[in-house]
Amino acid sequence: MTAAPPDRSRRGGRRVSRRALLLGGTAAVLGGVGLSQRDELAKLWYQVPGNEVPRKPGEVDYPGADWVAASSQNWRLASRPLDFAIDRVVVHVIQGSYATALDVFQNPLHRAATHYVVRTSDGRVAQTVRELDVAYHAGNRSYNERSIGIEHEGFVDRPEDFTDGMYRASARLTADICDRYSIPKDREHIVGHNEVPGADHTDPGPHWDWERYLRMVRDARPVPRTGASAVRAGTAR
């Protein structure tokens, strides 16, 4: 009778956890590669199920935002920027109301959501997906992985929907995102949904004032943070 192979998951009579084995193997592999390869391999660690960055239910990334969770069918778990670098902000217009945007993002059949929604009347901001995670908003997998999407209440053919309060609130949010992820505040890195490769959408449309918006983004003052929000902002860089 052939002897059973030794149980290599035990050490000194004690079972070694799967996490310990993975960590040990990862350390061994990382020790034998160059710096750039090491960075890429480290990113893969956070893509293994069960190794996601810890998060608290209902916690928001932007101070003052309301948490209105999107259906889990409209985004996927990630650990950005540790697994996917964030280098874009994508501007959307919902073709409807603020309430409609929140409603459809909670619908698992919708299969799409942005990270944030901004209200026309007063610039109120809701967060529906954590920045850590990949929201299905751009219609392009690479852009979904690398960007944060901001939805705006209104219709592309109604310039009156783009109020000063909405512009200012959205610009402060975009500036905060850019500051935390070191994203340049320019048109290459702050784009419309219509500019995403392969996109079949027209938003934010011809009435979106890009010159005004970018000026507001660049002029926006830093958003005050205290306690846990200050720690999260620091780890985003």
Low-confidence stretches: 1-30
Counting H and I runs of at least 4 residues, what is the number of helices? 7
* Alpha-carbon distance between the two ends: 58 Å
Query: What is the subunit arrangement here?
Result: single chain
Structural class: alpha/beta
Average pLDDT score: 85
- How is the biggest beta sheet arranged? 6 strands, mixed
Shape: globular
Radius of gyration of CA atoms, rounded to a whole number: 21 Å
- Helical content stands at 25-40%
Description:
The protein is of the alpha/beta class. Helix content is 31%, strand content 13%. It contains seven helices and ten strands. The strands form three sheets. The protein has a six-stranded mixed beta sheet, with helices on both faces. It has a two-stranded antiparallel ribbon with strand order 1-2. A two-stranded antiparallel sheet has the order 4-8. A hairpin with a 2-residue loop joins strand 1 and strand 2. Helix 5 crosses helix 6. The radius of gyration is 21 Å and the shape is globular. The termini are far apart.
Which key phrases capture this entry?
single chain; 237 residues; six-stranded mixed β-sheet; two-stranded antiparallel ribbon
List the helices and strands and how they pair.
Layout: E1 10-11, E2 14-15, H1 18-30, H2 35-45, E3 66-67, E4 75-76, E5 88-93, H3 98-105, E6 116-118, E7 125-127, E8 134-135, H4 141-146, E9 147-152, H5 164-181, E10 190-192, H6 210-219, H7 228-235
Parallel strand pairs: 3-7, 5-9, 5-10, 6-9
Antiparallel strand pairs: 1-2, 4-8, 6-7
